[in-house]
Amino acid sequence: MTIRLGSILIALSAALQPWANAQGDSAALAAPGVSVVAGPQTPTSDPVLFGTFPQLNVNAPVKAPVWPQRLAPQGSKLQGVCRDIPGIFEKPVGSPGYFPSEEREPTSLPGAVELLKWAGASEYATLRIEGPNSFRYSARPIEVGDPSSAPTDGPAAKPFRAAMTFEFMSARDVPGTTRATAAIDRTLFSLYSAAKGTKVRGVALMVPGMFGTPDGITESLAKRLRQDGWAVLRMWAHPARFTESMDVTITSNEPMDAQVAPWASEIDQRAAETAFASEAAFAHVVASNPEYAALPRVAVGFSGGAMVMCTVLAREPGVYTAAVMVGGGVDFWLMNERSNYASFINALAVKYEGFEKVEAAKVAANSAYLDASSLDSFHTAKHIGSTRVLLIQATQDRAVPSPLGDVLWERLRRPDRWVRVAGHEFLFANLRTEYDEVVEWIRKASTDFQPPETTGHLPEKFP
Predict the structure, then answer these.
(1) CA distance 229 to 232
(2) 78, 182, 187 from 168: Cα distances, Å
(3) Is 275 exposed, middle or buried (0-12, 13-18, 19+ CB in 10 A)?
(4) 243 three-class SS
(5) Dihedral sign of CA atoms 325, 329, 331, 336 in order
(6) Averaged pLDDT in 10-residue chunks for the chain of 463 residues
(7) CB-count burial class (<10 Å; 0-12, 13-18, 19+) for 257
(8) What does the alpha-carbon distance between residue 447 and residue 75 come to, in Å, rounded to a whole number?
C-alpha cells in the first residue's frame, strides 16, 4: 500500500504541473533555455519552511572513508558476487520483509554456496536473511509450456527483456553466535543495451529512490539515455537491508557518543553495501561486455539514491566521469529526524528518554552521528575524485530537506546546480520535461573522457 501511495503522489504531481523556475546564471555545462543556479552565495532553501532548521558546519574536517569488510578472498576489492538470473521471468517486483530475520542453510539460497566458496568461507553453515522492513526486488520465473503456471484470471505474464539481469549478494560476519553465522544482503540489477542504431557512448548507472521509486521516471529517463547511446545499468532498489528497521533509544544517563556510534556504524554499513553492489555490478557487466571497459561511466541518483551517491562514487574515486543527483542531501540521521517521509520509510526510529531539553539532545545526537560516521555523504562528498557533478534540487523539499541539499552542494565544492522552486514530488514530476537537458549535460560532461590504461586484464570474474 505504501508503495502505491508513493506512485500516486508522483502521478498526481505530474498531472498538476504548477512550476516556477529559480532564475540564475547559466552553468558552463547547462543546456540553453534551462534555468540554473550555478553558484549563489546564500542557501537556496525556502526561509519560511526552513528558517529554524539546524545549521551544519559545511567546513567541518574531512574524514577518510572507512570501508567495512564482507566475506571475501584476501586482497579482493570486490565484496560479494553477482549471479545471473536464469531462464525466462517477469518484470522484477519489489516486496517488503515483515518478519524477523530467519536463519537458513546456504544450500537453500540461490547463489549462497557460490558466494561462500568464492570467499573461502565454507565454515559459515548458517546465513541470516534480511529482516523486518527490508525491501528486495526479485524476478518471478515463467515456466514455459507448464499449464499450471498460467494465470487463471488475467492475461498471461509477459517475459521481461533486458541484456542482463543479475543479483549481487554479500555476507558479513555476525559476531557472538555459537555457530559461524553471516548476514546476507541482496541487490538486483538489470542492464539495458543502448538503442539499436546508436553509437554506444558508455554505461549509465541509475540508483533509484527508496523502494525503487519513482519507477516510471526511472524507466523513461533510462529510455531517453538509451536513445542517446548509453547502456543503462539499473539498480532496482537499494540493497535489501538498506531500510531494515532500527529502533534506537537514547538515554540521558549514558554518554551520547557511545550510544550513537553503533547505529552510525550500521548506517555506514548500508551506504557501503550500495557502493559494494554498484562496484561489483559494473565488474560483472564489463566481464561479460569487455567493450564497455574503455567507455565513460556515469551515474544518476534519485532521492535516496542521490543521498548515497557520493559514497558510491567514493568507492571508486574518479572512475565515473559524471554524476547527476536529483533531490539529494547529506546527514542521514538529521534527514530522518526532519523528513516528512520518515514514517513512510520507517528505517530509523529514535526515542529520547530522561532529557530536560529534548531538542538539544537531538542536536547532540546528530553531532555524535557525524563524528562517528565516515560513509555519510557529508564526508564522502569530499572523496569522489574528478567526477563532474550536477545537482538538481528543490527549495521547498521536505522529504530530503532542502538545507541538507545546500550542504551537499557546499561539501561537493559548489558544482553545477539547477534549483527549482518546488517540493520533492514536483521536482521529480517536472523532471520528465527536462530529460533532454539532463542528457545533454551528461554528454558534455563526458566529452573529455580518457580511456583507462589497459593492462590486458578484465575485472575479477565471479564463479
Answers:
(1) 9
(2) 11, 16, 5
(3) buried
(4) helix
(5) negative
(6) 39 35 31 34 77 93 96 96 94 91 93 96 95 94 66 71 97 94 98 96 97 95 97 98 96 97 97 98 97 96 98 97 98 96 94 96 97 98 97 96 97 96 95 96 89 47 47
(7) middle
(8) 34
Compute the distance between CA of residue 305 and CA of residue 377 in angstroms, rounded to an integer: 11
Q: What is the DSSP letter of 60?
A: P
Q: 394 by DSSP, 3-state: which?
A: strand
Which cell numbers hold the place of 154?
Answer: 488475467
Sign of CA dihedral 207, 210, 215, 221: negative
Residue 53 has phi, psi (to 5 degrees) of -70, 140
Residue 332's contacts (CB-CB under 8 Å, 6 or more residues apart) are 267, 271, 307, 348, 369, 373, 376
Report yes or no: 235 and 273 within 8 Å, Cβ to Cβ. no
Structural domain boundaries in the chain: 2-445
- Indicate the pTM of the whole model: 0.88
How many CB atoms sit inside 10 A of residue 287's CB?
16
Residue 75, classed as helix, strand or coil, is coil
Contact in structure between 170 and 185 (CB atoms under 8 Å): yes
Q: Is the peptide bond before 214 cis (omega within 30 degrees of 0)?
A: yes
Q: How far apart are CA 404 and CA 329, in angstroms?
A: 5
C-alpha cell at 183: 548476514
Residue 115 belongs to what H/E stretch?
helix 112-119
Architecture category of domain 2-445 in CATH: 3-Layer(aba) Sandwich (3.40)
